[in-house]
Design goal:
NADH Oxidase, alpha/beta, Rossmann fold, 403 residues, 14 helices, 12 strands, 8-stranded mixed beta sheet, single chain, elongated, 4-stranded antiparallel beta sheet
């Protein structure tokens, strides 16, 4: 019989399910375990809405833009809690979360996989599922027989202290990277890397062709390639799949991030060299053939320093590929709107201006400038022939060689 320690330590979030339906008896056992969770003032004002009808699942994905996993899992439980009872101090959310954890563990003990999802377009979900206004839509949990066996990510250490706070310290309240130190950025990203939800490539399928197109534009990679602060490493994975890379070097901030990248890459016959540091690249002058720097400059307090280091370690005529979120774009307007509303997800990030990036590249000869235009989210366009319009792309890719 599965004991509690096993269930806690072996349970994983499952995102691939078998087509096999889950018996109603098992669904009811899972719900029963949720009923026995603690709740604020023991009010137990939750409601578990089971969705296993294919038409409704498809409608949720199409109309409410829920992720495909909703329709790909045998059933989903939407967890609701009465809005008007014990909502102080998020008591209703805490009560629901306790019930969800019970259900996750019970499901695992029955051989059922699960994944806990947050929700965004709640109004549309509420309308489709006919949820009354008196109930708050807390979360959704997908269930089914697992069709994958994820490995266990390395757990964080130093997460507890006694009597007085002894953690790593507070982060700046500002989103502006210039208000952060590199050590604070390292600690922040080392914690954030543990988020195991799918990357933007899985959540937004239109992003995948962008990375694929970038890999095509970069062309064959010969010699030594260094990838600077790849973090989630989505583009690195695409390069590995699309290109034959002779020597790959990855420069990251901490062992935690490097271990995550190793885990994400999985078994590979590619030789990958990992280098750790914050500012100065521990690499000799003029030794690299190619450097990729994707979505990094907008997260750093001193982008000019990074470009200077890249220039130093590249061979003469070595190539740099920069990919960044542009300040003079509609995306930037949306970003600052989120900051104004207080809905920015946090962490150091600020779109960087095209002019600032171009100024940092004075030691390089620009070969190509590609961008994702205002009307398309899936193709890269060559903006060299379109004058000032290239400055208004959401994302810009620059290819340059060291003079």
């Amino acid at each position: 019989m599965l004991n509690l320690d096993q269930a806690i330590k072996e349970r994983r979030s499952i995102r691939k399910f078998k087509k096999r339906p889950v018996e109603k008896k098992i669904i009811e056992e899972i719900i029963e375990s949720g009923k026995y969770a603690p709740s604020a003032c023991n009010m137990q004002m939750w409601h578990f809405l089971v969705v296993n009808d294919d038409k409704i699942k498809n409608k949720l994905c199409e109309k409410a833009q829920l992720p495909p996993i909703i329709k790909n899992s045998p059933f989903t439980i939407f967890v609701l809690y009465n809005k008007h009872i014990t909502k102080e101090h998020h008591s209703n959310i805490q009560s629901s979360a306790a019930a969800i954890q019970n259900m996750l563990l019970k499901a695992y003990s029955l051989g059922i996989g699960s994944v806990w999802l947050t929700l965004f377009l709640r109004k549309k979900i509420r309308k489709i599922l006919k949820i009354p206004d008196s109930f708050f839509l807390v979360a959704a949990v997908c269930f089914g027989y697992p069709d994958e066996k994820p490995t266990c990510p390395i757990r964080r250490d130093n997460v507890a202290s006694y009597n007085f706070f002894g953690g790593i310290g507070e982060y700046p309240a500002s989103y502006d990277p210039e208000d952060w130190s590199m050590k604070q950025i390292k600690n922040y990203h080392s914690f954030k890397i543990r988020a195991m939800s799918p990357s933007s490539v899985e959540h937004r399928p239109e992003v995948k062709p962008i990375y694929k197109k970038i890999a095509e534009e970069i062309g064959p990679i010969k010699g030594k390639l260094l990838d600077i602060f790849p973090f989630l490493s989505n583009h690195t994975l695409m390069l590995l799949r699309e290109k034959k890379i002779e020597h790959l070097f990855i420069y990251e901030m901490s062992d935690e991030i490097i271990n995550f990248i190793r885990w994400k890459f999985g078994p590979t016959n590619k030789k990958i060299n990992y280098i750790k540091g914050l500012n100065i690249l521990p690499i000799k002058n003029g030794t690299l053939d190619v450097v990729t720097c994707f979505e990094v400059l907008e997260k750093m307090p001193n982008p000019e320093k990074i470009i200077s280091e890249i220039h130093r370690v590249l061979k003469k005529s070595g190539t740099i590929y920069l990919f960044f979120r542009n300040k003079t774009s509609l995306f930037s307007m949306y970003f600052y709107y989120k900051v104004f509303r207080g809905t920015h997800s946090g962490g150091p990030f600020k779109p960087i201006s095209y002019n600032r990036v171009m100024k940092t590249l004075e030691g390089f000869e620009i070969k190509n400038i590609f961008g994702i235009n205002l009307l398309s989210k899936t193709t890269l366009e060559d903006f060299k022939t379109k004058g000032f319009l290239k400055r208004f792309c959401r994302d810009i890719l620059i290819e340059a060689v060291k003079k």
